[in-house]
Design goal:
The protein is elongated and about 50 Å long. Helix content is 5%, strand content 22%. It has a domain of 54 residues. Strands 1-2-3-4 form a four-stranded antiparallel β-sheet, with no helix packed on it.
Length: 87
């Protein structure tokens, strides 16, 4: 994320699978949502079943830190259904 006035980088994170981004009304918190799916093998070397990691993250924009990570197994759980629109 860049500051449009100074072109300074405010925030950087590897969010390659993110499908929804929502900002708080005062632009101090950003929420990112990734689909709750496994990519690759579905079991560990020991044969135990893998589960996806947290896919719902709350970010503090002023300092770029992750405030919270949660599991939202369905997009309905997340409750905000605003997909990213690519131009």
């Amino acid at each position: 994320m860049l500051d449009t006035v100074s072109c300074k980088e405010l925030f950087a994170a590897d969010l390659g699978k993110t499908s929804i981004i929502v900002f708080s009304p005062r632009d101090r918190v950003m929420i990112t949502y990734e689909p709750y799916v496994l990519y690759g093998t579905r079991s560990n070397d020991g044969g135990s079943k893998k589960t996806p990691g947290p896919n719902l993250r709350y970010w503090s924009l002023p300092d770029g830190r992750c405030l919270s990570e949660q599991v939202a197994s369905k997009q309905v759980t997340f409750g905000i259904c605003i997909p990213i629109q690519y131009a």
